[in-house]
Amino acid sequence: MQPILSIKNLSKTYASGLSALAEVDLDIARGEIFALLGPNGAGKSTLINIICGIVTPSTGTVTVDGHDIQRDYRAARAMIGLVPQELTTDAFETVRKTVSFSRGLFGLPKNPDHIERVLRDLSLWEKRDSRMMQLSGGMKRRVLIAKALAHEPRVLFLDEPTAGVDVELRQDMWRLVRRLREQGVTVILTTHYIEEAEEMADRVGVIRRGRIILVEEKAELMRKLGRKQLTLHLQTQLSELPESLAERGLELTGGGRELVYTYDSQGERTGITRLLNDLASSGIAFSDLQTRQSSLEDIFVDLVRERA
Hints:
With 308 residues, this protein is of the alpha/beta class. It folds into 2 domains: 5-223, P-loop containing nucleotide triphosphate hydrolases (Rossmann fold), CATH 3.40.50.300; 227-293, 2-Layer Sandwich (Alpha-Beta Plaits), CATH 3.30.70. The protein has helices at 44-51, 73-78, 95-105, 112-121, 137-149, 167-182, 194-200, 218-225, 272-281, 296-306, and strands spanning 5-13, 19-28, 33-37, 59-64, 67-68, 80-83, 155-159, 186-190, 203-208, 211-217, 228-234, 250-253, 258-263, 286-293. The chain has a 6-stranded mixed sheet with strand order 6-7-8-3-9-10, sandwiched between helices. The longest helix is centred in the middle third of the chain and has 16 residues, at 167-182.
């Protein structure tokens, strides 16, 4: 199936000489939730701004459902909804008029039923006649999302959508994103809250210094790069590891009362049985043990550190 969003050899160098993007290739499938992760300054916002027609690329092409973002701008842009990081709205306008106006910008006829549905989905219906200046920061964030959905886009960009908002809105956002996917909307998410990507994404992309360094299905990424840690709580404090255990890759923590063993959970041999035998041979007894699976955040941090 043809991807709904196709990015080929995309680069952006500003007049100052700053290279914000370098030879980015990326295809996004129709109806998927794609999480784009990267540290500050990695190029996430530049990439989104180019796709949305806000910034002109230096080289490369972007097509949205077959429409070139430069040659066929109006058709391509009409396919896209964008929820920016900044809270920019008309302070004196009402919620309903603000959202309805966004629909009109795309030349679409009025559709009060659709506007009502969007406002209800975002728990904004009771605030429909309130002026923007009367809303809390979280409610204003909801209005930005409603504006992005007013023209019924097929691709929705959420650029740090829950930055600085409460847990309730974050949970509402997750539920809304899942409903949108069920309706066939493609959602592209950038976030500092990596648990959002872990919770919602089908695929994960990592961008660093303007380059995509990894694109992988989330489950496969966790399988291939995920690690487990076995923590042994020792009965007797150790000041250092015995020589017989020096090559076992152990870390002595907790003031000498814990041994941490990191291993590949997908490997044929974890080495745990041999480790426990070695500990017994060395006279080291433990009172308890626990395991921990690495999270997407652990994997992300490791990837960025390795490519530094």
